Amino acid sequence: IYLGALGDIRSKLSPHLRSRTKVAEELQQGHVPVTVLRAAMIIGSGSASYEIIKNLVKTIPIFLVPRWVNNKCQPIAVTDVIKYLVGVLEVPETSGESYDIGGKDILTYKKMLKICAEMYNLKRIFIPLPVSNIVFFSYLAGIFTPVPAQLTRYLMGGLKNEVVCQNSIIKNIISFDCLTYKEAIIRAMSREEQDKISTRWSGAYPPAHELAIKLNELKEAPMYTAYYYLYTEKKASTLFRSISMIGGKEGWFSNNWMWRLRGIIDKIFMGVGDSRGRKNQYSLIINDVIGFWRIEDLQPSKRLLLRAEMKLPGKAWLEFYIKDEGDKRKLAVIPYFHTKTIAGKLYWYFFLPFHEIIFNDLIKQIENKS
């Protein structure tokens, strides 16, 4: 069963939609029967499409909108997508067939933004703009949303095509009432409020698999490290609880302008920054994402090790650890950086003075909030 993309193949499709159609065609040439489901925008907590829409309406008060925002789309709730995926698995006559799946509503992209803004009780102004360059708008979306510019470019590339179901045959085979777009938004908001987001777009590893190398898998010790610590009488469990909140609604606990500036620089020039956020606000598991970091190791009340997932002239990790020393606890943060290039060495020494301020302030804030 292959979940592909909607799009009228008689029109000129975007590279993203065209590639997903090509995948379906290649799979169908094999000996194993392939059932193809074609969907437009999928709305659900943690989905890239939902997070782009949500963050745009929450951060931009005035929208300068190109012509393609009036193109039509038939969004579908992620719960309905799952019903169809399971449904075709249980109905033998769907084997080897292709179906369009969509929600109840057919809306313009502009209307979808307006509805989402209304759900958050926000008033937004839309001003028509003659410029319609997808690359430019996807770059802006990459800055104002947690979704990297590379991903927004592919997703938004499909906005120039109308993505509406051409047939509704599957409704006669798998019958149920699909959710409206507004209902899908409400469900996504509810999951976020309950801190029960099961999966998130950022959960997948990046294309550069070398970023997945773990600290203990390096053939040699990291070339550059720094060490920042303080002693406290607070319990390890409360300290770790504060550490586990970083990257959430409280940010990184630091009001330091350098920390924020660095996040903006990372976002603009490297495609991903602290705005990537995290899946759940109050709980962490290994492989979760926090900003541009991924959790590599987690030992409750002892250690949190994060691995950088952004383009750097080297490989980077950030370790938080708590150690009992007599009646007190040592709270420490250790940045690791491994490189053999001149660019990497310049990068480390350029940021080192800023790290002195950023990380010393960070551990103080963690201790204060514990």
Q: What is the element layout, followed by pairings?
A:
Elements: E1 2-5, H1 15-28, E2 36-39, E3 42-43, H2 48-59, E4 62-65, E5 72-73, E6 76-77, H3 78-90, E7 98-100, E8 107-108, H4 109-119, E9 125-128, H5 134-144, H6 149-157, H7 170-173, H8 181-193, E10 224-225, E11 228-232, H9 236-243, H10 257-270, E12 289-290, E13 293-299, E14 303-308, E15 315-325, E16 328-338, H11 342-368
Parallel strand pairs: 1-2, 2-7, 3-6, 4-9
Antiparallel strand pairs: 5-8, 10-16, 11-16, 12-13, 13-14, 14-15, 15-16
Helix pairs in contact: 2-4, 4-8, 5-6
Plain-language structure description:
The chain is of the alpha/beta class. The protein has helices spanning 15-28, 48-59, 78-90, 109-119, 134-144, 149-157, 170-173, 181-193, 236-243, 257-270, 342-368, and strands at 2-5, 36-39, 42-43, 62-65, 72-73, 76-77, 98-100, 107-108, 125-128, 224-225, 228-232, 289-290, 293-299, 303-308, 315-325, 328-338. Strands 10, 11, 12, 13, 14, 15 and 16 form a seven-stranded antiparallel beta sheet that branches. The longest helix has 27 residues, at 342-368. The mean pLDDT is 85.
